[in-house]
Specification:
The structure holds 2 protein chains of 2 kinds. Chain A is α/β, with parallel strands linked by helices. In chain A, 34% of the residues lie in helices and 28% in strands. Chain B folds into 2 domains: 183 residues, no CATH class; 183 residues, no CATH class. The chains are: A alpha/beta, B alpha+beta.
Chain lengths: 246, 410
């Protein structure tokens, strides 16, 4: 587990807080969280609903802004970025994987994967090449021209991962990626994520399933807007091995 | 996101909801078609008015003899014969930019040919008068100076007179009796149609002024050779106010009027009538265009309505795009492009429909239609403006969505 002062941390969060105003009431979703996540880590974030873990993930992903505190991603102070730069950061440095896949329903798998490249203003020919490459990486080269509804849930989630990877970000944020998948498909997905982590990509994964969390190197538990536990996993399970065994 | 990608993506979203896009576009189609048709109708109407005015002679003025006040009793116009043929000649010679000034007499007479008779207006004219009034012959010859000098018993007849007395057969060479005086018809006038007061300008007989004076139209035959009126035609673009002042000054001089005396003549300037008519037809065109513009506006509101629905429906899509790195302006551009494409498709189809309906009106209803390139450009420009204007708000609404809320939207 890296030191909080580690200068090489990919994510460095200090006293991060997020309040929501709901009419007269102020909801303190996040009450001062500090932690560092090093490059190449695979972190599982756990906690009951309302614990602040989703708020934390939104802040990590640059989808939301903190009410207080500081967030450095790769040495860059995310909290000070204007909306356009924040968009560029999401585009370049972060890949998102959601529970409900969040693919555009009317375009093919390949075009879904190309989406971040369009906003990165990559020329069409290179977009196609890179999208194909990432689809091949997640084992879906054959399905490039299928629409999302023509794919199974596991395949859709792999398209989403290919999309997250296409700009080669150092960080992947996965919000309950196995939540909508059966257990075998979940294992396949975790095997894929572990493979990506082996290749050096930092992964932060929100889950409420303990067996999924055991594939990570480190489990952080949230409760009432605070971190209540931050423990390393001594020998994470290998999803690929479990798949072979079954 | 570059323009090509934006356009492609916009077309794809529009295609996904073909019926809805089609119906939305229909509003713009009708609006644009209405603008084009109404502009064509309006322009056609004002050209028609302009042509009628031209036949009347737009840069002309007519001078009548003035009124006379005798012992405090004011007599009517023309009660004193103050205008002479010499006055007409002097106007032609001395007032700048006069094309023609001709003296004329006017009366009414019964015309007889064989067993047919017809009452018509009779004019005693000179070649200058014919030139000033743009009376041309369609058949035969016109009157010349010899006819005037010799007091020839020749006549020109209008189309209506020819129809009434000769049943449409060629009247030239025939003899008609005007107040029992036989005249040989030497020419048939080109048709002029109705004037602005609805009078038939073809119901006329023209005689040499010298022949008409006294025998046909009661008028003193003395040395002065007074006339009923003088018709003056100015060169194109001549300032009518200036010309009127010139004529007035000349006539006052010739009639030896003292500065404290009133004019003994009246000048009627037809350009005022022309201006009034043109203003009226311009107002009509404007009104038609305004009504058409309202329908374009309604079409635009339709676009805004459907874009708002579309933004709400696609909230999640917007969230996904924002999450993977779309900037606010990318989202704005996307929805604005969709609105503009809808409008432009509507504009193109509307132009086709507008041109077709204008042609149909011209063909079946016989309306005068004038299609102009600038009307088409105007329609396209206003459709684009409508697309941008009514697409802006929904697009901005989309662009301002918060990424998390958009992603959570069900």
């Amino acid at each position: 587990m890296p030191d909080l002062t580690d200068g090489d941390a990919l994510i460095q969060v200090t006293d991060l807080a997020r309040d929501y105003r709901l009419g007269e009431v102020t909801v303190r979703a996040l009450r001062g969280v500090s932690l560092a996540i090093g490059r190449g880590e695979f972190v599982a974030v756990m906690g009951p609903s309302g614990s602040g873990k989703s708020t934390f993930m939104n802040l990590l992903g640059g989808l939301d802004r903190p009410s207080a505190g500081r967030y450095l991603l790769d040495g860059e102070d995310v909290t000070r970025l204007d909306p356009d730069r924040l968009a560029a950061l999401r585009n370049r440095a972060i890949g998102f994987v959601f529970q409900s896949f969040n693919l555009l329903p009317r375009v093919t798998a390949e075009e879904n994967v190309e989406l971040p490249l369009i906003y990165a203003r990559v020329p069409a020919a290179e977009r196609h090449r890179r999208a194909r490459e990432q689809l091949a990486r997640v084992g879906l080269a054959e399905r490039a021209h299928h629409l999302p509804r023509q794919l199974s849930g596991g395949q859709q989630q792999r398209v989403a991962i290919a999309r997250a990877l296409v700009n080669e970000p150092p960080l992947i944020l996965a919000d309950e990626p196995t939540g909508a998948l059966d257990s075998r498909t979940s294992l396949e997905l975790m095997a894929l994520l572990q493979g990506l982590n082996d290749a050096g990509i930092t992964i932060v994964l929100v889950t409420h399933e303990h067996d999924i969390a055991e594939f990570a190197h480190r489990v952080i538990t949230f409760r009432d807007g605070r971190i209540v536990e931050d423990r390393p996993v001594e020998s994470p399970a290998r999803a690929a091995n479990l798949l072979e065994a079954s | 996101m570059n323009l090509l990608d934006t356009t492609r993506s916009a077309l794809r979203s529009l295609r996904a909801n073909k019926l809805r896009s089609g119906l939305t576009t229909l509003g713009i189609i009708i609006g644009v078609a209405a603008v084009i048709t109404m502009l064509a109708v309006g322009e056609g109407a004002s050209r028609l008015v302009a042509e009628q005015l031209k036949s009347l002679g737009s840069n002309t003025m007519v001078i009548f003899p003035g009124t006379v006040t005798a012992s405090g009793v004011r007599l009517g116009a023309g009660s004193r014969n103050t205008l002479t043929e010499a006055d007409a000649a002097a106007i032609a010679a001395e007032v700048p930019r006069v094309l023609a000034a001709g003296p004329g007499l006017r009366g009414t007479a019964q015309l007889v040919h064989g067993n047919l008779n017809w009452s018509s207006q009779v004019f005693g004219v000179t070649p200058d008068y014919l030139a000033a009034r743009e009376w041309r012959v369609a058949r035969g010859r016109t009157l010349d100076e010899n006819d005037i000098r010799g007091g020839a018993k020749v006549a020109l007849v209008g189309q209506t007179v020819a129809d009434m007395l000769f049943g449409g057969t060629d009247p030239t060479g025939q003899v008609i009796r005007v107040k029992n005086v036989p005249f040989t018809i030497v020419g048939l006038l080109a048709a002029k149609g109705q004037n602005m007061m609805g009078q038939d300008q073809d119901d006329v007989v023209l005689l040499p002024i010298s022949t008409a004076r006294g025998r046909i139209i009661g008028q003193a035959q003395g040395r002065l050779r007074t006339v009923g009126h003088v018709y003056v035609k100015m060169a194109d673009g001549a300032d009518m106010t200036e010309a009127e002042a010139g004529v007035r000054e000349l006539l006052r001089q010739r009639h030896r009027l003292q500065p404290d005396q009133d004019d003994d003549f009246n000048i009627r300037n037809l350009s005022e009538v022309v201006e009034a008519e043109q203003a009226a037809s311009g107002a009509l065109s404007g009104l038609l265009a305004a009504v058409a513009g309202v329908s374009l506006l309604v079409g635009g509101i339709g676009i805004m309505n459907i874009m708002l629905v579309s933004v709400t429906e696609r909230t999640r899509e917007i969230g996904i795009r924002l999450a993977v790195g779309a900037r606010q302006r990318d989202i704005l551009a996307q929805f604005l492009t969709e609105a503009v494409i809808l409008s432009l498709i509507g504009a193109v189809a509307g132009i086709a429909l507008g041109l077709a309906s204008a042609e149909a009106l011209a063909h079946f209803a016989g309306w005068p239609i004038v299609l102009q390139a600038h009307a088409v450009l105007l329609a396209v420009a206003s459709a684009s403006v409508v697309g941008i204007f009514f697409g802006w708000w929904p697009a901005r609404k989309a662009a301002r969505l918060s990424p998390i809320e958009a992603l959570r939207y069900e």
